[in-house]
Amino acid sequence: MPRCRYLPLLPLALAACSGDQSVLRPRSPEADAIETLSMVLFTGGAVIFVAVMGLVLYALFADPDRTRRLTGDHLVLWGGLVFPAVTLAILLVYSISVSNAVTRPPAQDALRVEVIGHMWWWEVRYLDESGELEFVTANEIRAPVGRPVEVALTTADVIHSFWVPNLHGKMDLIPGHVNRIVFTPREAGVMRGQCAEFCGDQHAWMAFHFVAHEPAEFEEWLELQRRPAPEPPTPMLAAGREAFVAYGCGACHRVRGLEGADGDLGPDLTHVGSRPSIAAGRLDNTVGAFGGWIVSAQHLKPDNFMPSFEHLDGPTLRALAAWLESLE
Ligand code: CUA
Question: What pLDDT was estimated at residue 106?
Answer without folding.
Answer: 77
